[in-house]
Amino acid sequence: MPAYRLQPKERKEALLQDQKELRKQLGREIDSCMEIKSTHRNKAKKILADMEVWHIADIDYEVRSAYEDYLTRETSMQAVTVRAYVRGLDQMKRHALREQMQTLKGKRDALENLDKQILFLPYHPEQEIASQFERFVYPESLVWDFRQDASGILKIQIFDVLHALLRSGMNTSIRNGKLEALKTLYAFCIREQVRDLEGLEQKHIARFQAGIAQKQKQATAMQVLDQSRKILFMGSKEINWNANVWYLERFHFEKTRTNPTNPVRTFSFLEVAHRQNKRYLQQYMKYCLGVTHLAVSVIQIELILVRNFIVWLEQKEVHNVCCVAEATIERYFKKQEQLDIKEAAFNRKVTSILHFFDYLKVRGFITKIPLCAQYYRKKEILKHHDRCVGVDVYTELLGKLQFFPENLRLMFLHLWGIGLRASEVCSLKGNAYSIQGRDAWIQVYQIKMQNYKRIPIPWALYRLMKVYLEKYQIGPEAYVFQNRKGGAYCYTTFRKNMLKCCEERQIADGGYLFKSHDYRHTVATMYYDNDASIQSVRDYLGHDHEEMTRQYVDYMPKKIAKASEEYFSKKNNSLAVGIKRCKRGT
């Protein structure tokens, strides 16, 4: 017989021999999974061999689906039994992954190109992630297909956010809700052809939110969207200045520029629709944050005012802020004059917009500033604010203070006793209290004024605080009143808790609205009424100018009443002294 007639037969025999060896190898790998029932192992040997899957490490979601279909279609097993056999296959896959991840090469091979394939979370190479899904009911929710026709940037972003959520250590129910929301967001971005999560526009967000029917799921989806943007902004190698939302935790500001009791968390550019206007505003904010030494809260106000101006321009079909006419700006400020805003607030708008145009001119985007600020600025007339707390109110509050939480009691005493700002109380450090001679003192960092002040305090408050510091082992550099993470107590939380306690204790029959700054006015007025000079009160409050102090203490009715009482108490100062009695008609 010719030799060429033997070749196909030899090849067939060789192929059969190879398959026999592969079956033996597959059998050895499956038999090494001793924790799996023998019936499950034997079934897997046959079906995987028929599917020509020769290594348990090659099991993936598609193999798993085919395995389950085979058991459902070709056998008479009930659904519960099918799930048990498939669970055995899952255990084999995890067994193979554990062995593979023990070597550097195996680890590199397992983690390679995960963001370019179907990722089935129970088959994740990282055991910390895979172990979260040892028991699951609906496998479809755990499948992430990164082969879909979508932007490569988007797929990498979703992949990164997914892993950040999986590594966050949240409980199962919250995790599952967030994964479902992220998957919905991924599908939405593919459908809307969104290329970059950080570039999502307001119109996209509105459509995304409207597409979710249940309010609870809608809230979770919006939370996940915000969390996704934050993860991407915080985790990028370089700051993405073109992101529509900036998360300021990424930046490291000087201590004097931030308020730890009420931190600014984000800068949003979503409201600006036209890309070029958005870029101008983002570049201006980048300059403000990086070059100037302004407080972040001041920059935030500047952002809001300029952003509102640009949004108004876009509504008037002015698509490039560099091309705005003086007449259009005049119309804008006339519109603002119709609003019920004070002169100082109006002037701040003028100044903020002027600063923005100054920046555009310096950068060469415009040649002339289309705004004459002096023409629009209004004269500011300082007005006194009568905000003193009535004696009966704070006396009642002091009487019921024992029912308030300990930290709120002490924080209130700082307001009522020494007139500190609420932000100053919330940011006090352990080394703030000291003794000099026979007096007790407190050193306070004034966030608003960006400097320190040192004032005397009552001995009773000093002793109370020393007990509190020792009781909770608060160090010199630690915050006296702390949030859950050990940071400065949040002003908003303080006010909310005080309002709640005042309402529960029916202060002033439940009609008292707690305002921390009112106690600062009360202390200032008390000193002034007791003949302290305006300069002394100014230094005590920590003001730079007497004009500001006068807004606290120049409330005259009490002083007029006191002077009148003293005058008319004298013998010859009665209003009736000059009245002569006479007969009627003469």
Strand order of the largest sheet: 5-6-7
State Rg: 36 Å
Per CATH, what is the topology of the domain at 402-567? hpI Integrase, Chain A
Largest sheet, in brief, is:
3 strands, antiparallel
| Total strands | 7
At the first level of CATH, the class of the domain at 402-567 is Mainly Alpha
- Which descriptor suits the 3D outline? elongated
Classification by helices and strands: mainly alpha
Poorly predicted spans: 1-6
CATH superfamily of the domain at 402-567: Intergrase catalytic core
By CATH, the architecture of the domain at 402-567 is named Orthogonal Bundle
Number of separate helices: 24
Percent helix: 55-70%
Averaged pLDDT: 89
What fraction of residues sit in β-strands?
A: 5-15%
Distance between the termini: 165 Å
InterPro entries: DNA_brk_join_enz, Integrase-like_cat_sf, Integrase_catalytic, Integrase_recombinase_N, Tyrosine_recombinase_XerCD
GO molecular function: DNA binding
Family: Belongs to the 'phage' integrase family.
Keywords: DNA recombination, DNA-binding
